[in-house]
Amino acid sequence: MKLEEVQATEARLLLTTYERSPILFAGGEGVFIIDEAGNRYLDLLSGIGVNALGYNHPAIVETIARQSRALIHTSNLYYHEGQAELAMRLTERTGLDRVFFANTGTEAWEGALKLARAYAGLKRSEGANIGTKFLALEQSFHGRTFGSMSTTFKEKYREPFAPVMPGVEFVRFNDVADLRAKFSSEVCAILVEAIQGEGGVRLLTQEFFAEARALANSTGALLIVDEIQAGMGRTGKWCAYQHYGIKPGAPTDSSSSVGWKPDVTTLAKPLAGGLPLGAVLCTEDVARVIHAGMHGSTFGGGPLACAAGVAVIDTIEKEGLLGHVTEVGNYFQDRLRWLATRHATITDVRGKGLMIAAELDSADLAKLTVGEMLKRRILINCTSDTVLRFLPPYILERAHVDTAIAALDEIFTEHAVAHSAAPPAGGQHHG
Ligand SMILES: Cc1ncc(COP(=O)(O)O)c(C=O)c1O
Fold this sequence. Notes:
Shape: globular
Distance between the termini: 59 Å
Number of helices: 14
Structural class: alpha/beta
Bound molecules: pyridoxal-5'-phosphate
Strand content: 15-25%
Radius of gyration: 23 Å
Strand order of the largest sheet: 4-12-11-10-7-5-6
């Protein structure tokens, strides 16, 4: 099918959930995705943070080919070796003890919410005074299914489907006083992204994270960190919370507020090299609440996705990509800061590793910039109206950053020239 035919068929047959850009992609290689006419696009979004190893990486392609010849699906009624292999790697790298495999980010997050409610129930049965309420953060994004949507901040995601799950309160981002005011023994879990993704690439402060950990410890509530976008190496560490002091595998003292390990974390996006796979990880203490039959998934943790997950982790390590992500990410931020000295429209540059934002002073210009970059065959996106977001593959090189910076420089320069040449607002001419 040609693009026009695909567009017409989709318009007739699909729910209108997406506003797609008019490009038909057919292939990819390294950091480039290729359309049906053979045009190559520099992908600085990597399928919204999924294609960490870029396109057509031999380790992923060969693993999927080999595993699909051997075994694609078993159900969770039987064993295959993939879940054990991947669980060993994930627990070692996150510092947590046990894993449940799901298919997507939102499904992993639902699992985390269920763990929190069940764990609070267990604690109550042991005599603790602990309720069922969730504290989430303003600007959070945790997914589109009911529990995830209910803990997601923006009204536009929740309002059409009301009533959403009750018992969720939102705390102002990085506002320690607001967190303290809203925390009580009614709370079963504090929910955070260490670095908010859809909310505009915003980093939690050390102070806020420490207070969340200390408050949760004070009642036995859980601290749950969503690493679906920031995890799996995107920020130069396996999990973004590891920038806040926890070393993978280090023991946490649950009575101490210096224990940085969350009680529960969730992973998805790049976990299986482009195949759908999500994971909930938790401590041994939290895990004791789960018994056979309480939770499950037909597809979650299938042999194909798990084999790809093992290949992703082994490749990231073999190719030294965590260090590379840090190095190229720092270079990217430096170049964006240089750009900000030339264009006052850039009001902030922030991020960690290859999770980077350039905030503009205009939502219109941000939207226009995404379109202009696309015309120059570079993929980025805009989140939270004014934030240009970059989530490139981990294999990005400095030369690709230079290409992107040159394109942005040209776009902002052209816009400034057009803007200064335009008649003033209102179009009144005097004299
Ligand atoms: C932090 C975070 N949590 C959860 C989700 C939901 O993941 P999925 O789209 O795989 O359901 C996303 C997706 O963007 C996310 O960024």
